[in-house]
Every structure is written in C-alpha cells, then in structure tokens.
Design brief:
Elements: H1 4-27, H2 35-60, H3 65-68, H4 78-102, H5 104-108, H6 111-118, H7 124-158, H8 160-174, H9 178-198, H10 202-220, H11 229-250, H12 258-261
Helix pairs in contact: 1-2, 2-7, 4-9, 4-10, 4-11, 7-8, 7-9, 7-10, 8-9, 9-10
Length: 270
C-alpha cells in the first residue's frame, strides 16, 4: 500500500479535480436552451463534485475505499431494501403535504419550489439532462459523502444515534436553504437508518434516486396524483413506518460485530 503522505497528496489532487470537474459541468448550462437543461447541468456538476470529494477523502483515510464509502452489498434482504425505498417516497409525500398545509408561504419561496418550476414540462433531451442532474447525480454524490464517508465515520466515533443525526444535519446544511434543508434533514435521517441497518450506501442511493425521480416526474407533468391533504399525509407516514418496521425486523443480528460492520483500519491496510 502507498504511504500516508502519498495518499494525502493524491487525495488533494482528487479534491482539486472535483472542483474543476464540477465547474466544467456546471458551465455547460451556458449552452443549454431550456430551463430543465440549465438546472440539470447545474445540479449535475454539484453532484459530481460531491462524489469526487467523497472518493478523495476516503482515499486519504486508512482502509479500503469501498468500505469507507459503504459500497459493499446491502446486508438487508432485497425485499426490506425495497420497503425502505417505498418508505422514503412515503415520508417525502408526508413532508411535502405537511409543508403545503402549514408552511405555505415559506414553501412558496423555497428552493424546492424553484427546482420544481425549473423542470416543468421537461421533455426529450431536456428531461434526460434533468434526470441525470436532479435525480441520479445528487443521489450518488450526496449519499457517498453524507451516508457513506461521513455517517460511517461518525457512527464508529460517537455511536449510531448521534452519528446518523449529525450526518443528517450536515445533509440539511448542504442544501443551503431553510425549507429545503429541513426536508433534507428529515429524509436524511430515514436514509441514514437505511444505510446503517444495511451496512451499505446502496439502499440509500436507490431510495434517494427514486425520490428525486418521482419528484421530477410530477414536476414535469409526466405523472399526476391528487390526494386529499390529510389522507395523503397519513398514507405517507404509514408507508414510511412500514418501511422502517420491515427493515428493523430484517436487519442482521449477531452476524458481525460493530467493528466489522463499519470501516476501520487493519494491518493489511496500512
């Protein structure tokens, strides 16, 4: 294995490359002809930059990069992982409904509404770029950084509850605006449990991508579903709770110790 100074030097180069790559992709918005394309390139650049940052920092730390970022297969059964994806969609529906009921004015001026309007009527090439930029890139970049690199390190250092909470708060702060950040903290805590119980970021990435995809389909007008507020809120909460209960009962017990579940250094990694 390479020495620590060498790893740090390479990681620094990767971080610089992250900034450069992010700027290049975001600059493509100048050549875009529609709002969905412009927004897609902007968010694609940010997501790409976050993913490369996570990889760069993970490279500088001891242990395999894949374990640092939680890229190993999920230890939850596939059915439970799917349940968490559906639960994430339900929680998102509940949060959106609650905001529209009680915080209408704050929601109207939020980044969330701005993104929704930015991809309105997206079709063809514009939809494809918006899909990559608003659904896939954020899901990969944000989850590798927040649920992979950060949460796994925090859980090992301060325990599961505090680690998941701190990673969720950072996830909210990363979104840079109060309403959008509050939504992100709530969804982030749910995704944090998914990543912790599965010992993998894969279910969290899948749930994040699915949530953003559904939001894109609704915002672009390709999908429509109208539920009364209270039943919509209760149905969303019920799906979220069902996903958690399902995963809780399916989570591995006694198959590995905490030290084995979370990334750490070993003599072979030095």
């Amino acid at each position: 294995m390479s020495s620590a100074p060498t790893r740090i030097a390479i990681a620094a180069w990767i971080l610089r490359f992250a900034w450069w790559s992010s700027e290049r992709v975001r600059h493509l918005a100048v050549f875009a002809h529609t709002n969905p394309e412009r927004l897609g390139f902007e968010m694609m650049g940010i997501g790409l930059g976050l993913a490369i940052v996570a990889i760069g920092v993970a490279f500088a730390l001891p242990g395999p990069i894949s374990r640092r970022l939680g890229l190993s297969p999920s230890r939850l059964p596939r059915s439970a992982a799917i349940g968490l994806v559906i639960g994430t969609l339900g929680l998102s529906q509940a949060v959106d409904t609650a905001l529209s009921l009680w915080f209408t004015r704050a929601l109207e001026g939020s980044v969330v509404v701005g993104i929704s309007r930015g991809v309105h009527s997206a079709r063809g090439e514009g939809f494809a770029i918006a899909l990559l930029g608003t659904a896939l890139a954020p899901a990969i970049g944000e989850e590798l950084l927040c649920r992979g690199l950060l949460q796994r390190a925090l859980v090992r250092a301060i325990g599961p509850a505090a680690g998941i909470a701190c990673a969720s708060l950072f996830f909210g702060w990363l979104h840079g605006e109060l309403v959008h950040g509050a939504i992100a903290v709530t969804i982030g805590a749910y995704l944090g449990l998914a990543a912790y119980w599965s010992d993998s970021t894969r279910p969290a990435i899948a749930a994040h991508a699915a949530n953003n995809l559904i939001a894109l389909l609704f915002s672009s007008g390709l999908l429509a579903l109208s539920l009364p507020p209270v039943p919509g809120l209760l149905a969303g909460l019920a799906l979220a709770a069902l996903g958690l209960v399902w995963a809780w009962h399916a989570r591995p017990r006694g198959a590995a110790t905490e030290g084995e579940l979370q990334p750490g250094a070993s003599p072979a990694d030095a």
